[in-house]
Please model this.
Amino acid sequence: MKTIRLNSGKEIAEVGLGCYDIPNSVTKQIVFEACQAGYRHFDTAVLYGNEYEVGQGISQWLKSSKDHKRSEVWYTTKLWNSQCGYMQAKAGIKSCLEKVADLQYIDMLLIHSPLCGPEERLNTWKACQEAVDEGLVKNIGVSNYGKHHIEQLLSWDGLKYPPAVNQIEISPWCMRQELAQWCLQQNVHVEAYAPLTHGYKLSHPPSEFVPILEKYQIDMAQLLIKWSLQKGYIPLPKTKTPARLKSNITLDFELTDEEMSIIDQPDAYDPTDWECTNAP
Ligand SMILES: NC(=O)C1=CN([C@@H]2O[C@H](COP(=O)(O)OP(=O)(O)OC[C@H]3O[C@@H](n4cnc5c(N)ncnc54)[C@H](OP(=O)(O)O)[C@@H]3O)[C@@H](O)[C@H]2O)C=CC1
Ligand SMILES: O=C1Nc2ccccc2C1=O
Model:
Protein backbone atom coordinates (compact mmCIF):
# COMPACT_ATOMS: atom_id res chain seq x y z
CA MET A 1 0.00 0.00 0.00
CA LYS A 2 1.44 3.39 -1.02
CA THR A 3 1.84 6.04 1.66
CA ILE A 4 1.43 9.81 1.88
CA ARG A 5 3.66 12.00 4.02
CA LEU A 6 1.75 14.25 6.40
CA ASN A 7 2.88 17.63 7.78
CA SER A 8 3.96 15.76 10.94
CA GLY A 9 6.53 13.88 8.85
CA LYS A 10 4.63 10.59 9.39
CA GLU A 11 3.60 8.33 6.48
CA ILE A 12 -0.02 7.18 6.25
CA ALA A 13 -1.33 4.43 3.94
CA GLU A 14 -3.19 6.13 1.10
CA VAL A 15 -6.42 4.13 1.59
CA GLY A 16 -7.93 3.41 5.01
CA LEU A 17 -10.67 0.96 5.94
CA GLY A 18 -13.68 2.89 7.24
CA CYS A 19 -15.01 1.06 10.30
CA TYR A 20 -18.32 2.85 10.89
CA ASP A 21 -21.25 0.46 11.08
CA ILE A 22 -19.16 -2.72 11.07
CA PRO A 23 -20.98 -4.80 13.69
CA ASN A 24 -18.97 -5.50 16.84
CA SER A 25 -19.43 -9.23 16.33
CA VAL A 26 -17.42 -9.22 13.06
CA THR A 27 -15.11 -6.21 13.46
CA LYS A 28 -12.09 -8.08 14.82
CA GLN A 29 -12.26 -10.65 12.02
CA ILE A 30 -12.80 -8.07 9.24
CA VAL A 31 -9.91 -5.93 10.47
CA PHE A 32 -7.66 -9.01 10.66
CA GLU A 33 -8.68 -10.06 7.15
CA ALA A 34 -8.17 -6.51 5.93
CA CYS A 35 -4.60 -6.59 7.24
CA GLN A 36 -4.07 -9.86 5.40
CA ALA A 37 -5.52 -8.31 2.24
CA GLY A 38 -3.05 -5.41 2.41
CA TYR A 39 -4.81 -2.68 4.43
CA ARG A 40 -2.51 -0.80 6.79
CA HIS A 41 -4.82 2.00 7.91
CA PHE A 42 -8.05 1.81 9.95
CA ASP A 43 -10.49 4.60 10.73
CA THR A 44 -12.77 4.36 13.74
CA ALA A 45 -14.20 6.70 16.38
CA VAL A 46 -15.61 6.73 19.87
CA LEU A 47 -18.99 7.16 18.16
CA TYR A 48 -18.66 3.84 16.30
CA GLY A 49 -18.47 1.78 19.50
CA ASN A 50 -15.95 -0.65 17.99
CA GLU A 51 -12.54 0.78 18.91
CA TYR A 52 -11.76 -2.23 21.11
CA GLU A 53 -12.59 -4.69 18.33
CA VAL A 54 -10.62 -2.73 15.70
CA GLY A 55 -7.61 -2.81 18.04
CA GLN A 56 -8.11 -6.54 18.59
CA GLY A 57 -8.10 -7.22 14.84
CA ILE A 58 -4.85 -5.28 14.41
CA SER A 59 -3.31 -7.07 17.42
CA GLN A 60 -4.28 -10.46 16.04
CA TRP A 61 -2.46 -9.61 12.80
CA LEU A 62 0.58 -8.30 14.66
CA LYS A 63 0.76 -11.50 16.69
CA SER A 64 0.29 -13.74 13.63
CA SER A 65 3.91 -13.22 12.45
CA LYS A 66 7.02 -11.77 13.99
CA ASP A 67 7.57 -9.95 10.67
CA HIS A 68 4.48 -7.81 11.37
CA LYS A 69 5.49 -4.57 13.05
CA ARG A 70 3.30 -2.11 14.94
CA SER A 71 4.85 0.73 12.93
CA GLU A 72 3.39 -0.73 9.71
CA VAL A 73 -0.23 -0.20 10.79
CA TRP A 74 -2.10 3.05 11.30
CA TYR A 75 -4.94 3.36 13.81
CA THR A 76 -7.14 6.48 13.77
CA THR A 77 -9.88 7.27 16.26
CA LYS A 78 -11.94 10.40 16.96
CA LEU A 79 -13.08 12.22 20.06
CA TRP A 80 -16.83 12.67 20.04
CA ASN A 81 -18.51 16.07 20.57
CA SER A 82 -19.31 15.28 24.21
CA GLN A 83 -15.56 14.84 24.83
CA CYS A 84 -14.65 18.38 23.80
CA GLY A 85 -13.09 20.75 26.32
CA TYR A 86 -9.69 20.42 27.99
CA MET A 87 -10.51 18.07 30.88
CA GLN A 88 -13.06 16.06 28.90
CA ALA A 89 -10.57 15.55 26.07
CA LYS A 90 -7.83 14.48 28.49
CA ALA A 91 -10.18 11.85 29.93
CA GLY A 92 -11.38 10.92 26.43
CA ILE A 93 -7.85 10.32 25.16
CA LYS A 94 -7.05 8.15 28.18
CA SER A 95 -10.18 6.10 27.58
CA CYS A 96 -9.41 5.73 23.83
CA LEU A 97 -5.95 4.46 24.65
CA GLU A 98 -7.21 1.99 27.25
CA LYS A 99 -9.44 0.39 24.61
CA VAL A 100 -6.44 -0.37 22.38
CA ALA A 101 -3.80 -0.92 25.07
CA ASP A 102 -2.07 -3.62 22.95
CA LEU A 103 -1.32 -0.99 20.29
CA GLN A 104 0.59 1.18 22.83
CA TYR A 105 -0.24 4.43 21.03
CA ILE A 106 -2.82 5.97 18.74
CA ASP A 107 -1.48 6.90 15.30
CA MET A 108 -3.98 9.67 14.78
CA LEU A 109 -6.60 11.31 16.94
CA LEU A 110 -9.19 13.56 15.33
CA ILE A 111 -11.70 15.98 16.76
CA HIS A 112 -14.84 14.53 15.17
CA SER A 113 -16.52 17.85 14.45
CA PRO A 114 -16.27 21.60 15.08
CA LEU A 115 -19.66 21.63 16.81
CA CYS A 116 -18.47 22.37 20.35
CA GLY A 117 -17.74 25.99 19.35
CA PRO A 118 -14.67 28.24 19.07
CA GLU A 119 -13.45 28.25 22.66
CA GLU A 120 -13.85 24.54 23.39
CA ARG A 121 -12.27 23.64 20.05
CA LEU A 122 -9.03 25.29 21.14
CA ASN A 123 -9.19 23.78 24.63
CA THR A 124 -9.62 20.36 23.05
CA TRP A 125 -6.69 21.01 20.73
CA LYS A 126 -4.51 21.92 23.72
CA ALA A 127 -5.25 18.49 25.25
CA CYS A 128 -4.53 16.81 21.90
CA GLN A 129 -1.17 18.61 21.60
CA GLU A 130 -0.26 17.45 25.10
CA ALA A 131 -1.12 13.86 24.13
CA VAL A 132 1.42 14.15 21.30
CA ASP A 133 4.06 15.49 23.70
CA GLU A 134 3.34 12.59 26.06
CA GLY A 135 3.79 10.06 23.22
CA LEU A 136 0.21 8.75 23.56
CA VAL A 137 -0.79 9.99 20.13
CA LYS A 138 1.48 10.41 17.08
CA ASN A 139 -0.64 12.74 14.93
CA ILE A 140 -3.62 14.97 15.54
CA GLY A 141 -6.19 16.28 13.13
CA VAL A 142 -9.73 17.50 12.64
CA SER A 143 -12.88 16.34 10.92
CA ASN A 144 -15.80 18.17 9.35
CA TYR A 145 -13.92 21.47 9.73
CA GLY A 146 -14.62 24.33 7.34
CA LYS A 147 -11.99 26.86 6.29
CA HIS A 148 -12.87 29.26 9.12
CA HIS A 149 -12.43 26.53 11.76
CA ILE A 150 -8.95 25.66 10.48
CA GLU A 151 -8.02 29.33 10.15
CA GLN A 152 -8.97 29.84 13.79
CA LEU A 153 -6.69 26.97 14.81
CA LEU A 154 -3.78 28.01 12.58
CA SER A 155 -3.83 31.57 13.93
CA TRP A 156 -4.13 30.55 17.61
CA ASP A 157 -1.12 31.61 19.68
CA GLY A 158 -1.18 28.27 21.52
CA LEU A 159 -0.68 26.31 18.30
CA LYS A 160 2.22 23.87 18.48
CA TYR A 161 1.10 21.23 15.97
CA PRO A 162 -1.08 22.11 12.96
CA PRO A 163 -3.77 19.56 12.09
CA ALA A 164 -2.27 16.76 9.99
CA VAL A 165 -5.58 16.12 8.20
CA ASN A 166 -9.10 17.35 7.78
CA GLN A 167 -11.47 14.40 7.34
CA ILE A 168 -14.48 15.53 5.31
CA GLU A 169 -17.11 13.93 3.13
CA ILE A 170 -15.97 13.86 -0.49
CA SER A 171 -17.31 11.97 -3.48
CA PRO A 172 -18.13 13.14 -7.01
CA TRP A 173 -21.54 14.19 -5.63
CA CYS A 174 -20.08 16.18 -2.76
CA MET A 175 -16.83 17.50 -4.19
CA ARG A 176 -16.00 20.37 -1.81
CA GLN A 177 -13.36 21.46 -4.34
CA GLU A 178 -12.66 24.83 -2.74
CA LEU A 179 -12.27 23.55 0.82
CA ALA A 180 -10.24 20.51 -0.21
CA GLN A 181 -7.86 22.55 -2.40
CA TRP A 182 -7.43 25.14 0.34
CA CYS A 183 -6.61 22.43 2.92
CA LEU A 184 -4.00 20.90 0.61
CA GLN A 185 -2.46 24.36 0.04
CA GLN A 186 -2.13 24.71 3.83
CA ASN A 187 -0.39 21.29 3.87
CA VAL A 188 -3.38 19.83 5.72
CA HIS A 189 -4.10 16.51 3.99
CA VAL A 190 -7.65 15.64 3.08
CA GLU A 191 -9.21 12.37 4.16
CA ALA A 192 -12.31 11.58 2.11
CA TYR A 193 -15.09 9.99 4.10
CA ALA A 194 -18.09 8.25 2.54
CA PRO A 195 -16.06 7.93 -0.71
CA LEU A 196 -18.58 5.30 -1.87
CA THR A 197 -21.54 7.61 -1.08
CA HIS A 198 -22.44 5.29 1.83
CA GLY A 199 -23.35 2.82 -0.93
CA TYR A 200 -26.21 4.94 -2.31
CA LYS A 201 -24.86 5.52 -5.84
CA LEU A 202 -23.09 2.20 -6.33
CA SER A 203 -25.82 0.12 -7.91
CA HIS A 204 -26.90 2.59 -10.60
CA PRO A 205 -23.82 4.09 -12.30
CA PRO A 206 -24.58 7.20 -14.37
CA SER A 207 -24.61 6.20 -18.05
CA GLU A 208 -21.50 8.30 -18.80
CA PHE A 209 -19.50 6.19 -16.32
CA VAL A 210 -20.30 2.88 -18.07
CA PRO A 211 -17.64 3.11 -20.81
CA ILE A 212 -15.02 3.84 -18.12
CA LEU A 213 -16.13 0.86 -16.04
CA GLU A 214 -15.99 -1.35 -19.13
CA LYS A 215 -12.66 -0.02 -20.36
CA TYR A 216 -10.84 -0.93 -17.12
CA GLN A 217 -13.11 -3.85 -16.16
CA ILE A 218 -13.75 -2.30 -12.75
CA ASP A 219 -16.76 -1.79 -10.49
CA MET A 220 -18.17 1.51 -9.20
CA ALA A 221 -16.36 1.18 -5.87
CA GLN A 222 -12.98 0.86 -7.58
CA LEU A 223 -13.77 3.81 -9.84
CA LEU A 224 -14.75 6.07 -6.91
CA ILE A 225 -11.76 5.11 -4.77
CA LYS A 226 -9.36 5.70 -7.66
CA TRP A 227 -11.00 9.04 -8.44
CA SER A 228 -10.45 10.10 -4.83
CA LEU A 229 -6.79 9.02 -4.87
CA GLN A 230 -6.12 10.83 -8.15
CA LYS A 231 -7.61 14.00 -6.61
CA GLY A 232 -4.89 13.69 -3.96
CA TYR A 233 -7.15 12.58 -1.11
CA ILE A 234 -6.94 9.69 1.36
CA PRO A 235 -10.20 7.75 0.85
CA LEU A 236 -11.73 5.69 3.66
CA PRO A 237 -14.01 3.13 1.98
CA LYS A 238 -15.94 0.94 4.40
CA THR A 239 -16.91 -2.65 3.86
CA LYS A 240 -17.92 -5.43 6.20
CA THR A 241 -17.91 -7.89 3.30
CA PRO A 242 -14.68 -9.91 3.16
CA ALA A 243 -14.92 -10.43 -0.61
CA ARG A 244 -14.91 -6.63 -1.18
CA LEU A 245 -11.85 -5.90 0.90
CA LYS A 246 -9.35 -6.88 -1.78
CA SER A 247 -11.15 -5.40 -4.80
CA ASN A 248 -11.48 -2.03 -3.06
CA ILE A 249 -7.68 -1.73 -2.96
CA THR A 250 -6.97 -3.38 -6.33
CA LEU A 251 -6.61 -0.23 -8.34
CA ASP A 252 -4.00 -0.94 -11.01
CA PHE A 253 -5.39 1.45 -13.62
CA GLU A 254 -5.08 5.20 -14.16
CA LEU A 255 -8.01 7.43 -15.06
CA THR A 256 -7.25 9.96 -17.79
CA ASP A 257 -7.86 13.68 -17.21
CA GLU A 258 -10.90 13.44 -19.47
CA GLU A 259 -12.30 10.50 -17.48
CA MET A 260 -11.67 12.35 -14.21
CA SER A 261 -13.75 15.26 -15.48
CA ILE A 262 -16.53 12.96 -16.67
CA ILE A 263 -16.71 11.55 -13.12
CA ASP A 264 -16.69 15.02 -11.49
CA GLN A 265 -20.20 16.24 -10.61
CA PRO A 266 -19.37 19.85 -9.64
CA ASP A 267 -22.99 20.97 -9.61
CA ALA A 268 -24.13 18.24 -7.21
CA TYR A 269 -24.31 18.68 -3.45
CA ASP A 270 -25.54 15.47 -1.92
CA PRO A 271 -23.93 14.76 1.45
CA THR A 272 -24.86 11.38 2.91
CA ASP A 273 -24.57 12.18 6.59
CA TRP A 274 -24.24 15.37 8.57
CA GLU A 275 -22.95 18.75 7.40
CA CYS A 276 -21.05 20.85 9.90
CA THR A 277 -18.25 22.46 7.88
CA ASN A 278 -20.42 25.60 8.03
CA ALA A 279 -21.00 25.57 11.80
CA PRO A 280 -20.09 28.75 13.74
N1 LIG B 1 -15.71 11.94 10.22
C1 LIG B 1 -16.99 11.73 9.96
O1 LIG B 1 -17.88 12.51 10.35
C2 LIG B 1 -17.38 10.54 9.13
C3 LIG B 1 -16.43 9.57 8.88
N2 LIG B 1 -16.77 8.48 8.10
C4 LIG B 1 -15.69 7.47 7.86
O2 LIG B 1 -15.69 7.14 6.48
C5 LIG B 1 -15.92 5.74 6.34
C6 LIG B 1 -16.66 5.46 5.04
O3 LIG B 1 -17.93 6.06 5.01
P1 LIG B 1 -19.28 5.22 5.09
O4 LIG B 1 -20.38 6.13 5.45
O5 LIG B 1 -19.04 4.06 5.95
O6 LIG B 1 -19.60 4.78 3.62
P2 LIG B 1 -18.83 4.37 2.27
O7 LIG B 1 -18.98 5.51 1.34
O8 LIG B 1 -17.49 3.82 2.52
O9 LIG B 1 -19.81 3.21 1.75
C7 LIG B 1 -19.98 2.02 2.46
C8 LIG B 1 -21.07 1.21 1.77
O10 LIG B 1 -20.59 0.75 0.51
C9 LIG B 1 -20.71 -0.67 0.45
N3 LIG B 1 -19.57 -1.18 -0.31
C10 LIG B 1 -18.27 -1.14 0.02
N4 LIG B 1 -17.50 -1.68 -0.94
C11 LIG B 1 -18.35 -2.10 -1.92
C12 LIG B 1 -18.17 -2.75 -3.15
N5 LIG B 1 -16.96 -3.06 -3.61
N6 LIG B 1 -19.28 -3.04 -3.89
C13 LIG B 1 -20.52 -2.71 -3.45
N7 LIG B 1 -20.75 -2.09 -2.27
C14 LIG B 1 -19.68 -1.79 -1.51
C15 LIG B 1 -20.71 -1.14 1.89
O11 LIG B 1 -21.39 -2.35 2.02
P3 LIG B 1 -20.86 -3.57 2.96
O12 LIG B 1 -20.21 -2.98 4.16
O13 LIG B 1 -22.11 -4.29 3.28
O14 LIG B 1 -19.90 -4.36 2.10
C16 LIG B 1 -21.47 0.00 2.57
O15 LIG B 1 -22.87 -0.18 2.40
C17 LIG B 1 -16.69 5.37 7.61
O16 LIG B 1 -16.70 3.98 7.82
C18 LIG B 1 -15.94 6.17 8.63
O17 LIG B 1 -14.73 5.53 8.94
C19 LIG B 1 -18.01 8.37 7.54
C20 LIG B 1 -18.99 9.31 7.78
C21 LIG B 1 -18.76 10.46 8.62
O1 LIG C 1 -18.88 7.29 10.07
C1 LIG C 1 -19.74 8.07 10.50
N1 LIG C 1 -21.06 8.03 10.20
C2 LIG C 1 -21.69 9.08 10.84
C3 LIG C 1 -23.01 9.45 10.85
C4 LIG C 1 -23.37 10.60 11.57
C5 LIG C 1 -22.42 11.33 12.28
C6 LIG C 1 -21.08 10.95 12.27
C7 LIG C 1 -20.74 9.82 11.54
C8 LIG C 1 -19.50 9.18 11.33
O2 LIG C 1 -18.38 9.51 11.75
Remarks:
- The chain has a mean pLDDT of 98.
- The first strand starts at residue 3 and ends at 5.
- Residues 18-21, 43, 112, 143-144, 167, 193-199, 202, 219, 221, 236-241, 244, 247-248, 273 surround NDP (ligand 1) (CB under 6 Å).
- The chain has one domain: 3-263.
